[in-house]
# Entry
Amino acid sequence: MEDKKANIIATITILTLLLVIIAARVYLKLSKTFYLLAGVDVSLILAVFCFLAIRNRYNREKKLLESRYISEGRELRIEYSFLRKVAGVPTKFKLDDLEEATDGFRIQIGKGGSGSVFKGVLKDGSQVAVKRIEGEEKGEREFRSEVAAIASVQHKNLVRLYGYSSVNRYRFLVYEYIPNSSLDVWIFPGRGGSRRLGGCLTWDQRYQVAIDVAKALSYLHNDCRSKILHLDVKPENILLDEDYRAVVTDFGLSKLVARDESRVVTEIRGTCGYLAPEWLLEHGISEKSDVYSYGIVLLEMIGGRRSISRVENKNKKNGKKKKKLEYFPRIVMEKMRERRVMEIVDQRLIEAKEVNDEGQVMKLVYVALWCIQEKAKNRPDMAMVIEMLEGRVHVNEPPDSKLVVVDLLAAAGGDDDDDVDVTTGVRRVVEIPRLHIQRERHFRFPSVCSSLVSPVSPR
Ligand SMILES: Nc1ncnc2c1ncn2[C@@H]1O[C@H](COP(=O)(O)OP(=O)(O)OP(=O)(O)O)[C@@H](O)[C@H]1O
# Structure
């Protein structure tokens, strides 16, 4: 606009000058010198005029290019954020966005070892669970491993990480919201607590959850660019969606391992009751350590009880009550030896007459016992577990097994009753100073037909 004005002014000025010169020539009869000076003036004015014209043209083209870049940049940005969403690449959120989404961190939906989890809604309407990681050094480590592990994974049975935020000492992880809480409130009686959530999963739902979790772990172990060891498989870290299908979460303790690395040595991490014996007995851990924890979770789903629990015993002689630890896998083995498999099953399911297929119960128990074999190499991998659960291969009876009880309750804080979470009987540990290992006597199934250590045989 300003350029146009300048052009008009320049044109008017030149015309006026010309008119003035001609008028002067006619009326004042001026000399040749005057014409010479006037000519120079006009040339100068013409030069200015040309300069203005060229500058105008240059500005116009510059503006055109700029606006093209802006619109192309906007398109690129839209495309980029679309691709991020499609590819599941996590977004970096601002703290303000998260405060707004969670209404100032108002609705707490969970609390774990590394922080609290809040419900929220993003601007685009998607429901999210925002985990606020608390604690300095440990929190940072868990934050990094969680983002690194989960950012690259895409599986319907693994929780999706929408984004994260790291501002000063505040660290947040933003997940898709999974509405039916975690598996523990659906298999252990009285776990819903003040949240009044949970109930009793049916047998079929439990069996489906077993398959879902096996698929999630098999994907982590076999189908990602690096092998991902979860290292904290337990009911609290298995969420249930609106159809009670399992979604594995909490990668805070996970470890990325190169494909060609069969074992890794790392500090003890995990949760009491779910730790595989090789954490202490062998050199390093592997994906088979997840298989072990998975086996324990299977037994807990079958029995509707924790693998380690405290029971009160009355002394027959003096009538005094005494608390003692009960190890459910040992009870399961004894029941299997006596061929009383249905006595292992959650009594609520038996009372509701929900379990009719004893063969299926037997299969699930066998798979669980294969998974908790003392020696990691004797356990099946997760891909094989899926084959067994989906009935594509026959499951052999597990062989003789030394049952290694890693007495982590004692290790984590002594035998002091006050020091243990009596509702769960378990405690999360990341670093354990000393460990008590107790080897159970050999357990022998009634009809071990083969010395071959293999969980399956061709159908
Ligand atoms: N995406 C989610 N959707 C709904 N609820 C969730 C979600 N993530 C976590 N929760 C709830 O919060 C609880 C704690 O979450 P999480 O286990 O991830 O925390 P944590 O601090 O890492 O715990 P842990 O002690 O197992 O490490 C879960 O048991 C669950 O009830």
About this structure: The chain is about 40% helix and 15% strand. The two ends are 85 Å apart (CA to CA).
